[in-house]
Amino acid sequence: MTNDRVSVGGVDVATGHFINGERVGSATTFEDRSPLDWNVKLAEVARGGALEAEIAVTAAVNAFPAWAALTTQERQVYLHRLAGLIDANIERIATVECLDMAMLLESLRLRVIGRGARNFRAYADLAVAYEPRRWDSNGTHNSVLRMPAGPTVVITPWNAPFMLSTWKCAPALAAGNTVVLKPAEWSPLSCSLLMDLVDEAGFPPGVFNMVQGLGEEVGAALVSDPRVRRISFTGSPETGRLIGVAAAKNLVPFTAELGGKGPFVVFADADLDLAAEKAALMYDDAGQICLAGTRLLVEASCRDAFLQKLTDAANRHVLGDSRDPKTTVSPMIHPEHLKRVEGFVERSVASGDTLVYGGHKLKNDGLWYLPTLIEPRSNDAEIVQHEVFGPVLTMQTFNTEAEAINLANSTPYGLSAMVFTSDQGKANRFGEGVRAGTIWVNCFLVRDLTAPFGGAGISGIGREGGDYALDFYSEVKTYQVKEDTTHG
């Protein structure tokens, strides 16, 4: 056991793992620094490996039979209790996540952290409300039933770590599975606060565990454990392929959300003020949002008018401290990620793409990168075909609906798409023709927790959200009973 804790923005945070209901340390640690000031070390965090992975999975295996045996109503009590504790601690969690990941504090307070509580309530309630499909055929009464799948490994990314962890763990727990959560090493601290709340909510030991560390160390050990029966991951396609191989070796169902390169299509009949305003929102959180529409596809006849409105909207952005309500663009998460984004832009300009505005970091020692727009020389340009995951947009033009759809479908990604038009028929044709898991018309980032979420192409495998998530975290079985022909 370990009682190592640090103060982060005045909030007490444990730095150890949470395994079998206890805080556990490791022989080594890793540094966690704040993107708001890279000179500030927030914590030395326990660095797990194969040993901690084995202990955590064992705890989840041992706790699984009793947790799976509970009714959905009994599990609902735990999840609702945890949701209430999240609501009561929004300010503390938001403070820590802002310092650890640099998302805008106002967004965390008003929207993001509270979504974590809604996740637990929504999935608990959906599990209780489940009605098996029932029908008669071939002289039998048939039902489709769910049963818990088993110990589950959840690996989450560094952007919005608290909310995305609850988004995955809530349906796994509601379905009757035990969980080992591995948060990203660049922003682990808000998930540590979640484990404090799990403990306070009285979850049985081993039901909900967390191990910290590097993906290639503890993450690899977790996903290769043959006792694990479900794996859920959000991150890069490169890491997703590695996890997929490990899952395949043990025949473990695997869901993955692997980023996007969403088309943001603007037709000439659109409300250009609205479209430009929403396009400028793609720079929020330094563009570190997988669902962002980073490829602006604009009808040629309105290109100049739209560009002027977008430039004006981008110029209104304020780069600054994420704790300041005036700030609209936060810093990048890590120097390595900033360097990656800089490399994309430098290669783009060197190859002949046109830099419209932005294109460099602020002239200081921080991690802020200016909102950037590039007009590529070709649709095959690297900046068009690969996810940058920073405040960098590209803009291309089209002349026909068919050309717009072809351009929208021209990358290997397929997570999200946005279309702005006043013509509902045009919007419908676009929605039917574009390959993406989520398509928004004249809006962005409107989410319904019961709707399926996931990507096509290299954007992912499987769907999360609503009953789609609960089905994934369950074994689904058909129960058949021969009709009684004796009449007693």
Kindly describe this structure:
This protein has 488 residues and is an alpha/beta fold. The protein folds into two domains: 274 residues, 3-Layer(aba) Sandwich (Aldehyde Dehydrogenase, Chain A, domain 1), CATH 3.40.605; 179 residues, 3-Layer(aba) Sandwich (Aldehyde Dehydrogenase, Chain A, domain 2), CATH 3.40.309.10. It contains 15 helices and 24 strands. The strands form seven sheets. The chain has a seven-stranded mixed β-sheet with strand order 16-17-18-15-14-20-21, with helices on both faces. Strands 11-10-9-12-13-23 form a six-stranded mixed β-sheet, with helices on both faces. The radius of gyration is 23 Å and the shape is globular. The model has no long low-confidence stretch (mean pLDDT 96).
